[in-house]
Predict the structure.
Amino acid sequence: MMNISPSSTLALRSFVDDQEDPVVKNVSSIDPKEKAHFEKIARLWWEPQGPFWPLHAMNAFRVRYIREQLVDYFKKKDDPIHLPLSGLRCLDVGCGGGILSEAIARLGGEVMGIDMVEKNIAIADHHAHASGLNIHYEVTTAEDLLARDVSFDVVFNLEVIEHVAHAEEFMQSCARLVRPGGIMVIATMNRTLLSYAAAIIGAEVILRWLPRGTHHWGKFVSPSEIEHFLVPEGFTVIATTGVFVNPLTRGFRRVKSTAVNYMMVASKAQS
Amino acid sequence: MGSECDVLIVGGGMVGATLGCALGQSGLRVVLLEDAPPEPFVVDQPFDLRVSALSVASANILKTIGAWGGITRRRLCPYRRMRVWEDLGDVEFLSDEINQPVLGHIVENRIIQLAVLERLKDFDNVEVIKGVKTRSMFYDPKGSSVELEDGRSLKARLLVAADGGFSKVRQAAGMGVSGWDYEQQALVLTVETGCGQQDITWQRFTPNGPQALLPLPGAHASLVWYNTPEEVRRLKSLSNPQLLEALIEAFPACLGEIKSITARGSFPLRRQHALRYVKEGVALIGDAAHMIHPLAGQGVNIGLLDAAALAEVLLDADHQGQDFGSEAALHRYENMRRRNNLMMMTIMDGFYRAFGSRSVPLRLLRNLGLGLAERIGPAKKMAMVQAMGLHRSLPRLAQGEALIG
């Protein structure tokens, strides 16, 4: 049994990004032909057996962890009558087709989802409307958002850092988007021999769950590096868990070892 | 007037009502439609013909949702032994062998249904609409609507078909089935026996079809006589004393004295399996998903497992912020149940074919099989564990684990 990164939003993003369309700035004013195209891809994004299945499987696992952590940290009521994340302003960085954003919105969060890929935002926007969810999606980056002087209770930083060009600057921007007393949730892959075997040889070459070239091992980030980026911004790591992927059952579970996939929660000091 | 809900369960039989209870106290708004509510139970009323052999897993489900008390308050008959034989092979299963107090319980279907419907009243998030038929159903992946004969209309994110083998919901959703009628019918008789309450069920295989005895509370039993439709018709036309005579002649003497027949009926047997259990916005459970040969009494048991699995999947999805009516969420339910149910149906078919044959090699083989089952401990235990629904990977409710709280 080995650990494998089941997927990465960015890698899958490139899948829908094959034919680059002219930049669509205002997604509500897209023409009907565009819309039909988005609808087709949106269906693909949200198909349980489609090319994005690892994301769906992993998202369910992650949301359970996130829900626990947020309820605990923000001392939220968690019962059938109250939505556990109600009132929390959340930012989903690299939201892709909106799989995480929708789950967080359903649990009561006020969600903003950002992505650099216009098509993803169009897909996410289309699907949220069809699902009757109120999520604000925008084509932008963490860096640009920071210039607008906004902040959030929670910033989700899932499977993005291992794909960006300048990890430190990126983490700094994300950190500054968290309000004092807020938290950041990170999910990524460690840079170990095991993660090379699992994510690149296992998931891409043997199992072919992911397209070849999805990951660049050299860009993987260790938990201590994340901590190193966040501490100067006033953060304290409050929880870390390893994530084990069973390639046979495609099941996910929490483990102690953070050698391959891991999740981390860090809180920002009050002032 | 239209009203909206999260889950609309069409059909308040044993399986539909169990799903309703399993979703009780959750954040989901549930409506259950039962167009023909059962007659209330009166102490000392005659036994109903329709009875089920509830497995230990089924009992776990009913206990966990809080409906078991409603059954024990009425009546039931536990059994600790099960004997299966043909002319040569013979095997007896004992609950002691797998360290269980019982192998199962024989309960009248109506009592199970009444107990579960009664329990439903305790849940504020579940509304039961009784005695009103549906006028029309319109399936829409994003939210279906059902119009009732009293003019009310209901909209639901998820439509659950718990409306039996000829499910209207399944039809409205355009979901196909494969199936055929068995060339056998079941003649069911309630009899009074000369011995007191028994704790053994037995099944004997004959070339014309199996015969079975299920013990009922007191000196009563339910006899099931599977036979060709012609023979069942002939037997049904006999007077009680004549039928009793035919019975005594056909059934083995070692069962003890059969004094009289108190009720009789017959049922055609059909095998049917839905090609898919789910589509976005709709899920099939119980007989709407599968009709199975009643030989080993597994129909209700697999139906209750469906209800337990679907409840688990819906509540998990809701907990994870997933759209519980989406295909992605519902697919997990189909994965949990369809393959298992298919296996159970195939095993029943195997019994039906293997034991229905007069061919000498097959007869030798199956006698040998029964003989071996008696002698090989682990194989026997495994067969028992399967038949009792105690194998691993059961829905949480069937393991006695509550889904809420």
Remarks:
- The longest strand of chain A covers residues 178-189.
